[in-house]
Design brief:
The structure holds 3 protein chains of 3 kinds. Chain B is mainly alpha-helical. Chain B has helices spanning 2-9, 11-43, 57-84, 87-119, 127-148, 152-184, 199-231, 236-248. The longest helix of chain C is centred in the last third of the chain and has 31 residues, at 209-239. Classes of the chains: A alpha/beta, B mainly alpha, C mainly alpha. At the A-C interface, α2, α3 and α6 of A face α1, α5 and α10 of C. Chain C: InterPro entries: Cyt_c_biogenesis_CcmB, Cyt_c_CcmB_bac.
Amino acid sequence: MQLDIQKLGCERDERWLFSDLDWQINPGELWRIEGPNGSGKTTLLRILSGQMADYTGTLSWHGEKLSRCREAFMASMLYIGHRPGVKKALTALENLDWYQAMSTVEEGGARARRDACFQALEAVGLAGFEETPVEALSAGQQRRVALARLALGHQRLWILDEPFTAIDRDGVRQLERWMMAHCEAGGSVVVTSHHDSGELLPASRVLRNLRFDGQGGVHVDC
Amino acid sequence: MWPIIHKLGSPKWFYTMSGRWLPFLWGIGTILVVTGSVWGLAFAPPDYQQGDSFRILYVHVPAAILAQSCFALMASCSLIFLVWRIKLADMVAGAAAPFGAAMTFSALFSGAIWGVPTWGTWWVWDARLTSMLLLLFLYLGIMALRGAFASRDGGARAAAILSLVGVINLPIIKYSVVWWNTLHQGATFSLTEKPAMPASMWLPLLLMVVGFYLLFAAVTVARTRNEIIRRQPTARWVRALVQGGRNGL
Amino acid sequence: MTAERAGPRRAVEPLPGLWQGFAATLGRDCRLRFRRRSELANPLIFFALIVTLFPLGLAPDSTLLSGIAPGLLWVAALLSVLLSLDGLFRDDFDDGTLEQLLLAPQPASVLVLAKIVAHWLTTGLPLALISPLLAVMLSLPGHSMGVLMLTLLLGSATLSLVGAIGAALTVGLRRGGVLLSLLILPLYTPVLIFGAGTVRLAVDGAVIAPWLALMGAMLALSLLAAPWAAAAALKLSLDG
C-alpha cells in the first residue's frame, strides 16, 4: 500500500471535523471524495498532502511514518489546491520550469527541463502560448497551466482539490482520462469534486468513493 | 516523563487542582501586598537623598520584575505549546500576556512619576525605561497578533512563535539600548547603584515582590480557568461541574 | 491532445537537490520583481521622500542636518524596508504558489531564505547603493559615506531576515500591514542603534570595527534563526 491512514482525526477550534478514519490508498486506486460543503474534504486533503500537522492518528507512506520521510513523500506527491499556484506575471513556461526545477533531479540540464515543459504545455492544449504571461490567458487556460504539472508527470500520488473548476467539457474529459491512465499505470489519485464529476469516471473500474456525511462521519466504499 | 506532562496538560486536572490552590494564592498574596505597602509607605525610614519620594520604589520594582518574569513565563509556555502541542500551555500564555503588559505599563508609569522629583522631568531616555518601553510594544504586538486571527488555534501558534522570537531578541534589545545610552550620555541615571539599603527598607520590598508574584499566579490561574471553561463548554466534566454547582446552591 | 504522458517511472525517485531548489526560487523571485519595475522603485522613492521631509520639518541648516543625518538616513531606510515587507509573501499566498513552495521536497527554510535573499537584492542593496546621494544632501561628511553604505548593506540584510518572520506571521490576515509594523519595529531597534551608531562614530573618526563586528554577529544570528522561524510561521498561516 502507498498511503496508510490510521485513526485519523482532526479538530479545529474544539470541533471535530472527522475522527477515527481508517483508510488505505493503494497503487492503481482513484479515490473520489464526496460530501457537503464544510464537511472537511479540503482539510482531509491538506492533511494527506502533509500541509497540516495538527491531527491525531498516524499517516504512513510505504510503511514509514510520514513525518519521518517528508522529503521522499513530497517528491512523489503532487497537490493542486483551490488556488492554482501559478504566477500571473510569469509566462506559462517559466511557471512550469520552476515546478520542474523544484521537483526533479536535473537530467540533461536546463535544456531538457525546458523541453519537458514544452511537451507538457502542448499536452494541455497550450501550444503557442508558452511565452505568453499567464495574466493574458483566460481563466480556463490559467487553470490548464496548473494542470500541465500532471503532464510533467513523475509523481505517483496525485491529490487534486476541485480540479474540474473553470475547465470546459473537453478539458474535463481529458483530465479524467489522465487520472484513469495514471491509476492504470500504477499511480494513485485522490480527488474532490462538487459537480458529479464527469462522464467517464463513474464507469471506471479504478474508482473508489469516500463519503463525508456532514455529521462527522466518513464512509469508505471499496 | 510523558504521563506527567500529559497529566499536567489535562485541563480537567488543572481545573480541579487549581481550584484548591487559588484561595491560598489570593489570600497570602493580598496579605503580603497589604503588609508590604503599609510597612513600606508608612514605617520604612525615608531615603537620605530622595526623602519620601523613593517610596514609589515599592510599586515600581515589583512591577518591573513581574513584567520580565511574565514574559519569561509566556515564552516558556509558548515553547511547551509549540513542541508538545499542549493547549493548556497556550491558555496560560494567553492569560499571562495582559497582566505582563499591565505590569510593564505600571513600571513605566511609576518610573515617570518617580522621575519628576529625582530627575526633574517626566521622561528620560534612560536605558531601563527605554527597554521597558520596547518590552511594552512587544507585549502589545503579541496580544494584537493573537487577536487578529480568525481561528483561535492559528492565533495561538502565531503568538507563540512571536513570543519565542521576542525572548531571543529581548537580551539583544536590552544590551543595545544600554550601549546606545552610554554612547549618548556620559552618565546614566542609575537607580540601583546606591548605598546598601537597611533591612527596614528592603524587607517590605521583598514582601511586595513575593506578594506580586503570588497575585500574578492567582490572576493567571483564574484567567486560565475561565479560558478552559470558555473553550470546552460542552465537555462532560464541565457540564457536570455547572450542574453540580447549581445543585449545591 | 494525446493521452501520452510519462507514467510513474521508478519506485524510488532520487531527491531533487537543495541548491537547485534554492537557485530556481531565487531566480524566479528576482525575475518577478524585475517584471514589476514600478514596484521595485517604490521603496527607493519612499526613502528619498522621507529624507526630503526632514529638512522641511526642521530647518535648512547644514550643521543641524549633518548632526542628525546618520540617524535620519537609518530610520528612513528602515521604514522603506518595512514598507516593502508586506508584499514579501502576500502575492505568493494569494495565488497559491506559497502553498506549493512549502510542498516542495526541499526544506521550507531554505526556500524561504531564497525569497528573503531576493527581497534583499531588490530593496536593501539598492537602498544602500543610493544612500550616499541622499547623505550628500544632508551634508554628511564625505569620509563616512563608505561606512554608511557598509552598515546599510549589513543592516538591511538583518532587517529583511527579521522582517520575514513578521511578514510570514501576518500573511494570512487581511489587514496585516499595520500589525506587521507593530510586531517588527521593536525587533528592529538593535539594528537601528548599531547601524546609526556606527555611522555616527565614523563621522567622529572613532574606531568602528567592534561595532561592525556586532552588526555582523546580528546578521549571523538572524541568518541562523529567521528562515526557520519564518518557515514555521508560514506553515501556520496556511493552516489557519
